[in-house]
Amino acid sequence: MAHFAGMTHLLVPIDERETSHRAVPVAGRLAKRLELPIQLFTRVEYDHEAEAAKRELDRIAEAYLGDNDVTTGTIFGEDPVESIVAAAGETGIGCMGTAASVRFHDGHFGSVAEGVTRTLGRPLFLVGPEMERHPGAPTRKVGVP
Known about the structure:
Elements: E1 9-14, H1 18-21, H2 23-34, E2 38-44, H3 50-64, E3 70-76, H4 80-88, E4 92-97, E5 103-105, E6 108-110, H5 112-120, E7 124-127
Parallel strand pairs: 1-2, 1-4, 2-3, 4-7
Antiparallel strand pairs: 5-6
Helix pairs in contact: 4-5
């Protein structure tokens, strides 16, 4: 299968919440099916956090991504939506976990997943909190509405 419409990588943003980690095994399956490398990353606020954050990403990749082509890294930035969209660049698609809830944020209702969906402008696979970590048989088809 050729690369997915010119996309070059599958970006998986990770934060401290369990819901973001649920996207990792799903991303591994999608990346294999779409023949894309994975970029697993997390946002940090300070330089001194980067090394520990990268070690944690490496641990997550080893635990859930097996023989996938994976790179890990950190990105600096205050706004999570802007950070994710910037990391995706012009040719990345995303796979991210979401709590699937609407909460009050900074004077408006919304979420990071909603912000990325509205801003990215290309496929974004959202993994909700009810998704099984190991969803069974290998992925055979990927449908994008």
